[in-house]
Amino acid sequence: MTRIYFNEVVTRDGFQIEPNFIPTDDKIALIDALSQCGYAKIETTSFTSPKSIPMLRDAEEVMGRIQRVPGVEYTVLVPNLRGAERAMESRADELNLVMSTSETHNLANLRMTRAKSFAALEDVIKHVDGRTPINVSLSACFGCPMEGDVHLEVVQQFAQRFADLGVRGLTICDTTGMAHPAQVSRMVEVLQTQLPHKQLTLHFHNTRGMGLANVLAAVQGGITRFDGSLGGLGGCPYAPGASGNICSEDAIHMLDAMGYDTGIDLNKLLNVARYLPSIVDHEVPSQVAKAGRITDLHPAPDYVHELKGETA
Ligand code: COA
Ligand code: ZN
């Protein structure tokens, strides 16, 4: 059975655009519950400027108070050197650096050109100097909502430049849900050939309903690492019209049904997913949490038993 590794991003990508501050205690309780579900990784929070992302201003406290489960990596999003310092002080297992492959999206999200972002992240990588593993998330790899197409060659170039700096992994992000399955197949074929020894993770948003189709294309192309967000929450605050990540429990349910080994206890996960709306105080796009698993059968109506000649 092929092993698939899931990184749960709900408390970072999911919570960063929630309109109301989610109490720190609720974040910690949710991460602790998710830690019991079998995830390979949890992206706990981000060490960004509290003015830019006020929702995650409690990053230190969250990292300090969660109960770390052996075997689960606690990764954090880091935009700059200051963030890297804070993350290492908080004993993050991995730093997830971020920049966009689209110039306009990078300016909108990080307020600098790609060249400046790359130089700044290069400094971070050199400063960390192997003390903590580094992953780089490349945003808008499948298209930019402001610029349109982002050429595959551009994604390849940034991926290569970071690989040459010795990062452990790269996450190829469809930040605003523009990817389609044929594009995903091509992307994963090219990148796996180019970087056979790097951990490659795919990060999809379901903005246009293609999220699970894209997971399928990636997994059939040999990808074994995915980001997902509980309940399908999420979205980049600097991408117009962005909406939720692929829903973790829906993606895991699909891959489970297909015979992949996700390492996740889906019943436990669905129990956690079912209390997510009470934490965020609104409905979430998740489907399996509402409909149940395909193996959760329902009793037939009495008349069906009668038609079958059975006593109800
Ligand atoms: N942690 C805490 N504070 C930080 C910080 C960090 N990592 N980076 C910058 N700051 C603070 C600075 O100290 C400064 O504070 P001050 O105004 O009190 O002096 C303020 O933020 C502005 O700093 P500056 O260096 O001018 O940065 P900026 O305003 O250009 O912001 C980013 C740059 C990248 C730090 C900021 O835009 C950011 O955090 N963006 C979030 C990106 C993100 O997570 N997007 C969603 C995920 S893709
Ligand atoms: Zn995202």
Write a compact overview of the structure shown.
By secondary structure, the chain is an alpha/beta fold. It has helices at 10-14, 24-35, 59-65, 81-89, 103-110, 114-128, 152-164, 181-194, 211-220, 248-257, 266-280, 288-291, 302-307; strands at 5-8, 41-46, 73-78, 94-100, 134-139, 169-174, 199-204, 225-228.
Describe the SSE topology.
Blueprint: E1 5-8, H1 10-14, H2 24-35, E2 41-46, H3 59-65, E3 73-78, H4 81-89, E4 94-100, H5 103-110, H6 114-128, E5 134-139, H7 152-164, E6 169-174, H8 181-194, E7 199-204, H9 211-220, E8 225-228, H10 248-257, H11 266-280, H12 288-291, H13 302-307
Parallel strand pairs: 1-2, 1-8, 2-3, 3-4, 4-5, 5-6, 6-7, 7-8
Helix pairs in contact: 2-3, 2-11, 7-8, 8-9
Bound molecules: coenzyme A (COA) and zinc ion.
